[in-house]
Amino acid sequence: MLLNCFPISVLTSSLKIFGQTHISDDRFLSTVTAVTSLFNCGGRVAWGAIVDHFSFKIPICIQLCLWGVLLFTFPVIAYTTGIVIKILYVIWACALFFFLSGVFSMMPAATGSIFGPINLAVNYGMVYLGFSFGSVLSLVVSIFWKVSPEIYFAVSGCVCLVTFALAIWLDDRNLPGRLLFMNWFSKQCLSSRVSNQLTVDTCEDL
């Protein structure tokens, strides 16, 4: 949640600013903003259904990868004009908010799967604290780092890819049998911890 907060903050604060810079139709931009809210709401239901079917790890990895690509490529639409930039702006804006919605659908499921159902509300509250810290961090960055929205979108894409690199190490015990290969990274991490523990115990016995 800490890392996801930066792309969320950039997207919610800079999307319309980017649009106003390159599109002079304010009514069009307001309409797009309303439509993106529908994708944000509907996306939560869609991602929730996906998690119910495939568990949380694979959807999170896919969401982070595609979200990162969209954030990276979004500034490119500024090189188009006329009706083309309007069409591309609608597509990217709706897609960005659709993938944003996945964060709030999948994190509770991931918390319950990793830490178990006992004290789930407290555990998710602790996880969500990362969002609070991330909001403060995003505010500090925006105050002291004055760059164009295009740079913010590119950095947000990098943050998504870093988050993906961390997410592949999560252990998902509810994966369907044919998808258990996705736990290879977490198994390697676990085997290293077990191996180190055995080495320490052996040395102490000697």
Could you give a quick summary of the protein structure above?
It is a multi-pass membrane protein. With 206 residues, this protein is mostly helical.
Give short descriptive properties of this protein.
206 residues; single chain; 0% strand; 7 helices; mainly alpha; globular; Growth Hormone, Chain: A; disordered C terminus
Structural class by secondary-structure content: mainly alpha
- Quaternary organization: single chain
Q: How would you sum up the major sheet? A: none
As for the number of domains, it is: 1
Classified in CATH, the superfamily is MFS general substrate transporter like domains
CATH topology: Growth Hormone, Chain: A
Radius of gyration: 20 Å
Strand content: under 5%
Order of helices and strands: HHHHHHH
How large is the count of helical segments?
7
| The level-1 CATH class | Mainly Alpha
Helix content: over 70%
**Shape annotation:** globular
Report, as a whole number of angstroms, the end-to-end distance. Answer: 44 Å
Would you identify the CATH architecture?
A: Up-down Bundle
Low-confidence stretches: 192-206
Q: How many individual β-strands?
A: 0
What do the pLDDT scores average to? 80
InterPro entries: MFS_Riboflavin_Transporter, MFS_trans_sf
Membrane topology: Multi-pass membrane protein
Protein name: Putative oxalate:formate antiporter
Subcellular location: Membrane
If you had to describe this structure to a student in words, what would you say it looks like?
The chain has 206 residues and is mostly helical. Helix content is 80%, strand content 0%. The chain has seven helices and no strands. Mean pLDDT is 80; it is low at 192-206. InterPro entries: MFS_Riboflavin_Transporter (IPR052983), MFS_trans_sf (IPR036259). Its main location: membrane. The chain crosses the membrane at residues 60-81, 87-109, 121-145, 151-170.
